[in-house]
Structures are given as C-alpha cells and as structure tokens.
Amino acid sequence: MTTRILALRTTDSAPVDATIDELPALLADPTTLVWVDMLDCGESDRRILEGIFKFHPMVVEDMLADAPTPKLERFDGYLYIVFHALLTGWEKSHELPIGDLDVMLGRNFLLTSHSKLIASVENAWTQVRKKPELMRKGTAYVAYLIADVLSERYLPLMEKLDHEIDALETSIMKDPGPHLLQQIMDLKHKLQRLRRVGLHQREVLNRLSRGDREMEIIPEDVRPFFRDAYDNFVRVVDLNDSFRDIVSSSMEVYLSMQGHKLNEIMKVLTLISTIMLPLTFIAGVYGMNFENMPELHMRWGYYGAWTAMLVTAVGFFTYFKRKKWL
C-alpha cells in the first residue's frame, strides 16, 4: 500500500507533502485543504479510514471491496463516490480493463483510493502541484479535475469500438467465417459491460452537477464543471446504445449469411444427387442377374449403357445451367 498526502494551508504558496501523523491536525483545521491518495488500500489502512477520518464501517467495507457499478452515497460531512475508470494500457487490451476509484469528498478533504494506477488521478495530482490555484478552488474542484479526465478517456474507447464495428461489418460481407462469431460476442460483452458502467456513472455525475440539497458539500460555482463531465458520459451512453444496435444487426446479418451459405451448399449437393439418381437407376437395372435380359448379350450393350448415362447427366447439367441453379 502506498499513501501520499498533499496539504494546502492558507499560509502556503503551494501544496506540500504531509505524513499520516500530521493528518489529524490538518483535518481539524477547516481552512486547510487535504488530499489523501491511497494505492492498493487494504485492511491495514482501517486505522486511517475509521480512526482518523471517522468513516462509517460499512463505507470502509465498500472501499476495500470491488463495487459492481458506480454509485454516490451521502453521509454526515462527506460524500462517498465510486467511479469506474479505464486503466492504463486499455488501448492494447482485448478486454475492457476498468478499475474502481473510491472518492471521499468532504468540505476540506479529498480521499481517493484505487487498486491500480489511474491516469485521471495522476493527471490531477500533477496539475495541482504545478498550479496551486487549482487546489485553492477547493477539494470539490479537485474531484472535478479527476472526473473530467476520467470521463474524457472513454471517448477514445468509443472511437476504437466504432472502428472495430466497421471492420467487423466489412468482414461479415466479405468472408463470414466461424471466427467472426467470437468477435461479435466479444463486442457484445464489451458493450454490455460499458452500458452498465455508463448508465450508473452518468447518473452519479448528473447528481453531482445538480443543485440538490444533499450536494451542499459541492459549492454552487463548482457544480457546472461536473456538467461537462456529465455531458461526456451522455455521449458515451448514446454511442454505446447505437453500437449495441449495430452489433445486434451484424449478428443477424452474420446468421443470415451463414444460412445462405448453408443453403448454397445444400443446393449443390441436391443437384448432384438429382444428376446421379437416373445414373444409379440405369446401373441398377443392368446390374440385375436375370438370364432373359437381351441387352446383356448385345455387342454394344456396355457402350450403350455408358452413352445413356452420359447423355442423361449432360442433359440434367445443361438444364440446371439454363435455370441458373448451378
């Protein structure tokens, strides 16, 4: 577990690093802004969460576990927010690597907890170090900086999915092989998971941007900024719904193409059987071992049977060609 702490006092010109032992005094001063970032939080951190911050035990349990969906809960003196963020390296992954980002937002403190590195947190940490005036706007504004980058990182993902769907549609029309079925199912799985995240995350950002009474921890002048992050997720959810419809249509086209391909195979086999049927009949008739079969004793009987079979086969083949069945 790695814990880093930034503190900005009224007398400081820039945020300074602090230690866990300094936390109680920093939190007790309402004019001091504190940001605590915890990487890979575990049971050993309960002392900080319950002892220093006085978080509810159920909240701590939720923080230590993985949340299935984003959520927002209000407690006395702080908000508990769970975001789902794209992890670093998602561009090269065939899966959809999403990690929990737990955020505790109070009037003078911000606590972030995550099990893996999250780009939006690192970006905000770098920004407030370089530009102290960003942190002076309050912990709610720092939370916005995190949410803004977090939401924007989903837009390149939607563009990547758009390209994958276009390539899939082209492949279905050119070569609808069995391998495409796995690609379609993988895309459906990604989009379904993304929909669960998007719907809940959009609602969380919407509540943060509204002027509800339960959101009094977020100043009025900061709420419009969350609207920008909310708009990003409105776009993500809308695109996701469109993609799901396209992938469903692609599945139907794929099954239709497979059915058409099977019908073509069955048609060819049926026509071959149709051509062979009279030939089998002729061979069967002259394969009988009756003594009173004049054709068996004819000098040219064998060649005549072959001629009849060839003429019959060529006749059927020509007929099928004219009908464009072959």
From TrEMBL:
Transmembrane spans: 268-288, 300-320
CDD domains: TmCorA-like
Gene Ontology MF terms in the entry: cobalt ion binding; cobalt ion transmembrane transporter activity; magnesium ion binding; magnesium ion transmembrane transporter activity
Main location: membrane
Catalytic activity: Mg(2+)(in) = Mg(2+)(out)
Membrane-protein topology: Multi-pass membrane protein
Superkingdom of origin organism: Bacteria
Alphabetic keyword roster: Cell membrane, Ion transport, Magnesium, Membrane, Transmembrane, Transmembrane helix, Transport
UniProt entry tagged with the keyword Transmembrane: yes
Protein family membership: Belongs to the CorA metal ion transporter (MIT) (TC 1.A.35) family.
Function description: Mediates influx of magnesium ions. Alternates between open and closed states. Activated by low cytoplasmic Mg(2+) levels. Inactive when cytoplasmic Mg(2+) levels are high.
Name of the protein: Magnesium transport protein CorA
The species this protein was found in: Sandaracinus amylolyticus
